[in-house]
What we know:
A six-stranded mixed β-sheet has the order 1-4-3-2-5-6, sandwiched between helices. By secondary structure, it is an alpha/beta fold. The protein is built from 23 helices and six strands. Among the domains are: 31-175, Glutaredoxin; 244-357, Serine Threonine Protein Phosphatase 5, Tetratricopeptide repeat (Alpha Horseshoe). 60% of the residues lie in helices and 6% in strands.
Amino acid sequence: xxxxxxxxxxxxxxxxxxxxxxxxxxxxxxxxxxxxxxxxxxxxxxxxxxxxxxxxxxxxxxxxxxxxxxxxxxxxxxxxxxxxxxxxxxxxxxxxxxxxxxxxxxxxxxxxxxxxxxxxxxxxxxxxxxxxxxxxxxxxxxxxxxxxxxxxxxxxxxxxxxxxxxxxxxxxxxxxxxxxxxxxxxxxxxxxxxxxxxxxxxxxxxxxxxxxxxxxxxxxxxxxxxxxxxxxxxxxxxxxxxxxxxxxxxxxxxxxxxxxxxxxxxxxxxxxxxxxxxxxxxxxxxxxxxxxxxxxxxxxxxxxxxxxxxxxxxxxxxxxxxxxxxxxxxxxxxxxxxxxxxxxxxxxxxxxxxxxxxxxxxxxxxxxxxxxxxxxxxxxxxxxxxxxxxxxxxxxxxxxxxxxxxxxxxxxxxxxxxxxxxxxxxxxxxxxxxxxxxxxxxxxxxxxxxxxxxxxxxxxxxxxxxxxxxxxxxxxxxxxxxxxxxxxxxxxxxxxxxxxxxxxxxxxxxxxxxxxxxxxxxxxxxx
Length: 527
């Protein structure tokens, strides 16, 4: 996981769809169906729930400690829990797809009064993820399910969209589940259309084809769900900034903020974008301050949310030249923040105290440029941006840039240099195994990969496989694909069989399908 800030707008598509970021595929579990069983491996917090009681309503929310958006939604879910726990609501935070199961209990303890509901761990083979998330076609977290008093799934969506009105209706027995089921089916089909349009829109924006991008966005706007219209306006705001149409962008920001005064984190994202988005020549810092203060004054904010907003307000004030006020607000942010965020805010505070503007926004922009230039095969531009980024980072943070070095050397045809880098990474041990795997996989799935590139990628995958003692399912799957492309089907099948053996949850199913393809002599589509 990278450490991009959790309050930031990550991608235009994430903003756009917001709730169900997955294709409208057929799924066996949908709104209106009986809820699956609760089968967690362990209850980390709260009294275990063995089965759904007929006098209770349940929110089962799927999350993980590494998931930034999950952290943002936790205070909102906790507020609903506090509001309705004495009226028959039970909230279960079901941890899934966890990279470090041992981190869950400390995380929950650290959250304290911001996470007071029940918490459960999934099984090692991902039973809860499989029978709930995958069964419902949900490919991203956080995601929430509401189970009504009859044991029926009454609602599925993003937890931040779960509001008091929905819960009040379900608790009172007045919520129309049949109507909700129909709306859910139509919504999934609509989300798939939006996904296609916005994928094309993002591609056009990356290539600065502004007129075509605007037409794609307008087409998406025609089918955008009215209840999520604000997400369309957020997307349009970002697009106008990218296009340097600042007056129009700030008009959208002002009207969007005024129309949603209670949505503090949306306000916060707008203010932060105005203040820090890279390559913005005209910043309306007065508007950014107005919106940030509106976010700060919104009711019902928890400590985590307040810390994010105070950090934004501190940045705006610093850029306006109000250094003392900025330091005061950042000190408050540090006091309220937890974990990694506290550490990050402490670094920001030290910059303000030294009279410096933190440069993480510019560094993120450099990284975006590197990724874009690598995708477009512009190796010299990517290399120049990488050198600037490397020179701006502390030495301890430069190791993560090795993936860019490898891709650039590979793209330039400097195979010996790329191989040497992979060898060094392998010598440093298991911590770099998944980095090596990612490098090999990126080549393995390219239809236009040269034979020399494929041979190098196979070497890299074998190094990763050796480092992990030939027991990592992901790496075995990558190596099997390399070997299959080389034409050695029996060895590919043997490697893929081992990948299936070590895989868990959804990956076991995917890897089995890949194995079936290899046995049939076919190269499967990339995941």
